[in-house]
C-alpha cells in the first residue's frame, strides 16, 4: 500500500496537499528550496489544523499526529527517495516544472508515480521530460485543499490505465472526489472558470459596472459563493494570467486572450490577496474591501 508521499513545494497548494495526506495517515516529505519556505509552509499547516481543532472537527491529538507525519527537506533527492508517489506543486511555470520532473525521474525509483498539481500546463509535455511517461499524471487539487472536495485527475497521452486507477483510488482514500479528464489546455475546471473571470475583468475594464456590482450580480443572480473578481484575487491575478496565456497559446483562439486590465495589474504587482491588493484591498485583513474609485 502506498503510504509514503513526497510533495514538492511548500506554498499555498503544496502545504495544503501535504496537510491532507498527513491528516489521512500518510507519511509526507515536504520539499522546498529553503528552510524559510518550509517553516512558512509548516506554520500554515499548523494554523489550519488549529482552526479545525477550534471548530471541533479534529482533536488536539489528531493535530499533533498529523504534524508528526510531515518531515521537511531542502534536498530534493533525499526528500523523494523511496516514495510511492511524488506530487509536484511548484509555481505554474513550464520551464521550472520540466526541470523538476527531470530531477525527479533521476532521483525516484522506477515504480514511483510522478504527479503534478498544474492547473493548465500539458501533462503530456511534462511527462515527455521523463523516462516514465506512463507513470506521470495530473492531480489538480482545488484551493483551499483541506476544504475543497474535487481533485481533477488528468491523463497525459501516455498515462497508463494502471497509474490512473491507482491515483483515482488514492484520491478517494483522501476523502476527495476524483474526476478524470483528458489533457487539453486548462483541462475542465480552468477552461470554464478562467474565461468567466476574464469576462468579469473585461466587464469592469469597459466600465459596464464596478467591482462590487459585478461580484454581487454573480453571487446573488448565479448563486456563486464568491464573485469572480474576488475569486481572481483569491487565486492570484498572476496565476489567472498564466492560465489564460496557456490556453491562448494552446488553442490560438482570441476568446482566451487576457484582458489588458489583468495584464496591467499583474505588471504593477497587484496580484490579489498574496500582495495585499488586487480588485480589493487586503492590506488590513483578508476581508475584501473595494480598493479605489478606479474600480467603481
- What is CATH's topology name of the largest domain? Rossmann fold
Can you say what the CATH homologous superfamily of the largest domain is? NAD(P)-binding Rossmann-like Domain
Q: What's the helical proportion of residues? A: 40-55%
Main sheet specs: 8 strands, mixed
Number of strands: 10
Taken as a percent bin, the fraction of beta residues is: 5-15%
In angstroms, what separates the terminal alpha carbons?
55 Å
Report the order of strands and helices: EHEHHEHEHEHEEHEHHHHHEE
The helix-and-strand class reads: alpha/beta
Q: In order across it, which strands form the biggest sheet?
A: 3-2-1-4-5-6-7-8
CATH architecture of the largest domain: 3-Layer(aba) Sandwich
Number of domains: 2
Low-confidence stretches: none
CATH class of the largest domain: Alpha Beta
The total count of helices amounts to 12
Oligomer: single chain
Which outline best applies?
globular
What integer is the average pLDDT?
95
Structure description:
The protein has helices at residues 12-23, 35-54, 60-68, 76-79, 94-107, 123-127, 161-173, 189-205, 211-222, 228-235, 237-251, 260-267, and strands spanning 4-8, 27-31, 70-73, 85-88, 113-116, 136-141, 150-155, 177-182, 280-281, 289-290. The protein is built from 12 helices and 10 strands. The protein has an 8-stranded mixed sheet with strand order 3-2-1-4-5-6-7-8, sandwiched between helices. The chain has a two-stranded antiparallel ribbon with strand order 9-10. Strand 7, helix 7 and strand 8 form a beta-alpha-beta unit. The model has no long low-confidence stretch (mean pLDDT 95). It has 296 residues and is of the alpha/beta class. The longest helix is centred in the N-terminal third of the chain and has 20 residues, at 35-54. It starts with a strand and ends in a 6-residue tail after the last strand. It folds into 2 domains: 4-182, Rossmann fold; 189-295, N-(1-d-carboxylethyl)-l-norvaline Dehydrogenase, domain 2 (Orthogonal Bundle), CATH 1.10.1040.10.
